[in-house]
Amino acid sequence: MRILFVGRNAGIGGGTTYLRNLIPALQQRGNHCELMTRGGPALPLLQQVADRTWWLPPVSWWTFGKARRIIQRKRIDVVNTTTTNAAEHLLPACRQTQTPLIMTLLTRTELARCLPAAHYAHAIVALNENTINFIANDYPQLTGKLHLSSKPLILPPLRPSPNRDADTTTVTYMTRLSRTKGPHALDLIDACCQLAKTIPNLRLVIVGSGWRLGNVRKQAAKLNRQLHSPVVEVYGTMLDPEPIFANTDILLGAGYTALQGLAWGCTVIGVGYAGLFGLLTPENIEEAIRANFGDTGAQWSQVDASVLAEQILNAHRQHRSPDDWIESVFDQHFNPARIAQDLESLFEEAIHHK
User: Fold this and answer.
1) Phi–psi pair at 90, nearest 5 degrees
2) 3-state DSSP call for residue 301?
3) Taking CA 91 as the corner, what is the angle to CA 90 and CA 96, rounded to the nearest 5 degrees?
4) pTM of the entire structure?
5) Number of C-alpha atoms within 13 angstroms, CB side, residue 277?
6) pLDDT one-digit tens code per residue, 280-319
7) Cα–Cα nearest to 293, from 327, 324, 328, 257
8) What are the beta bridge partners of residue 206?
9) Other CB atoms within 10 A of residue 68 CB
10) 222 — phi, psi (to 5°)?
11) Helical H runs in 113-235?
12) Beta pairing partners, 52
């Protein structure tokens, strides 16, 4: 099978991680995977896994002509878009070449602008149950097209890194510092101030970029001056965050960030677009997966410094038990081979029904 994936850009985030983990699993099953995307810091990482990468033009008429030529010349069997904008731009080329379209929703999103593409698509793939329920509720006419999948993740060794400093408690928040998630970083800095006397040698690391990055750095510098110590470190975008995961004790994040934290043996607190999900445990992990760890569902929609400080303190005090449950959860929900097999069947069904 020859698959053309189409995404908006090669930014650092869940979309890139999704393709980096899914494409090799599909290739191992004998599929040929090409990719259309714009530039970005993660483009070299995507070029390493895709059989061929193409530049995605910024306007629809240009995309139409280029995508049509690629589909025809490369004998593409199915197109899989990973953003609603990409689906909207690829629709004319798919229609003219009678190529099946699969839309993947990496997170909960509105479909109003791309309803023609959604109606044309053979299936709309969502990566958690909350997104399925959201689309079914807002767009009941699309219910029959919805297909539940998951986030493939290639695992590192499932054990805490020996590089961690036993005398230091490192708390990491890793996300885009956007309008929705950026305020959590500012609240975390305030929470760190509250916890500085309670948790000895506390260190807060914030990783991510976005329009709130400047404000976060200013607030961090202010607290460091107040405490006379570099308690808070703020990084921008990191192409390879593995050293951060390896040296983190308590991780805050959602989506792929939360998954990677679990894989690296961190204690994880889910927090995202929807609010604060809370500390991940064997008892609530299934619910956390449905909520995308705080991106599509939360226990606390209103997040402030006091709530975050309480969560971090509870995580710090919790006696750490062996994380044997994590491996089985990953194999059941996030195994790239299982997910690739399921999607391959969906793609084949789309081809046979075109």
Assistant:
1) -85, -15
2) coil
3) 105
4) 0.92
5) 30
6) 999 999 999 999 999 999 999 999 999 999 999 999 988 5
7) 257
8) 173, 234
9) 18
10) -65, -45
11) 115-120, 129-138, 182-195, 213-227
12) 34
Question: What is the rounded CA–CA span in Å between residue 130 and residue 149?
Answer: 12
The 10s digit of each residue's pLDDT in 33-55 is 999 999 899 999 999 999 999 99
Q: Which two tokens mark 294?
A: 């705080």
Do 275 and 302 form a contact (C-beta atoms < 8 A)?
yes
Place of tokens 């969560």: 311
C-alpha distances out from residue 50 to 4, 5, 20, 104, 180, Å: 10, 9, 8, 18, 32
Tokens of 191: 């929470």
**8 sits in which H/E element:** strand 2-9
**Nearest alpha-carbon partner for 286 in 128, 153, 173:** 128
Taking a C-beta distance cutoff of 8 angstroms, is the pair 4, 74 a contact?
yes
Q: How far apart are CA 244 and CA 84, in angstroms?
A: 31
Structure tokens of 310?
């309480």
> Using CA atoms in the order 26, 30, 36, 38, what is the torsion angle rounded to 10 degrees?
60
Give the residue carrying structure tokens 């099978």: 1
Q: Which two tokens stand for residue 178?
A: 């956007």
